[in-house]
């Protein structure tokens, strides 16, 4: 047997013996804060704060733990020498969640950490001409059970990503770009 076959077999059999799962689908909106991050120098290109939306699917596979997959979109602007233009970031992410209360609780505080990719779209460009960088993220929040299958959530997360290098400057950017998400949203629980 090859390793691929064993991996496939494990992938197919594991859900049958795994504990019951609760799925959540959520939509959040809020802000992305970059703290005036410098993307390039000579001339300076500065990234401003903006808005953010996120779609998340959470699988709570254990009483105190779960997995989250999602997509986030942040819209901001980049400024240089008194000029400003729109700037977009598309993100896909996976996070592991650890809850402070068991599944079924009315209020569930959580901590999270994971990995993501960020596709930076330059001003006037399209996603096909963007630059993709990988990074890690961490944070926490609160989930509230409302009426029936409906819930609400508050998230605070930080995304650390390499700086995009699509700006034509003599010195390519170095270091990490820190994006802070502060958002609130609604969820539907199955």
CATH class annotation: Mainly Beta
End-to-end Cα distance, whole Å, is 37 Å
Question: Which value, in Å, is the CA radius of gyration?
Answer: 19 Å
Report mean pLDDT, rounded to a whole number.
Answer: 87
CATH T-level fold name:
Porin
Strand order of the largest sheet: 1-4-5-6-7-8-9-10
The total number of structural domains is: 1
CATH architecture annotation: Beta Barrel
Strand proportion: over 45%
Fraction in helix: under 10%
Q: Note poorly predicted spans.
A: none
Characterize the biggest β-sheet. 8 strands, antiparallel, barrel
Sheet/helix structural class: mainly beta
Count of DSSP-assigned helices: 1
What would the principal axes of the Cα set say about the shape?
Answer: elongated
Element pattern in H and E: HEEEEEEEEEE
Instruction: Count the E strands.
Output: 10
What's the topology here?
Layout: H1 3-17, E1 22-33, E2 37-40, E3 45-47, E4 50-60, E5 65-80, E6 83-99, E7 107-121, E8 131-145, E9 150-162, E10 176-189
Antiparallel strand pairs: 1-4, 1-10, 2-3, 3-5, 4-5, 5-6, 6-7, 7-8, 8-9, 9-10
Describe this structure in words.
This protein has 190 residues and is mainly β. It has one helix and ten strands, in the order H-E-E-E-E-E-E-E-E-E-E. 25% of the residues are buried. A hairpin with a 7-residue loop joins strand 6 and strand 7. The chain has one helix at 3-17, and strands spanning 22-33, 37-40, 45-47, 50-60, 65-80, 83-99, 107-121, 131-145, 150-162, 176-189. The longest helix is centred in the first third of the chain and has 15 residues, at 3-17. The chain has a single domain (20-189), classed as Porin (Beta Barrel), CATH 2.40.160. The protein starts with a helix and ends with a strand. The model has no long low-confidence stretch (mean pLDDT 87). Strands 1-4-5-6-7-8-9-10 form an eight-stranded antiparallel barrel.
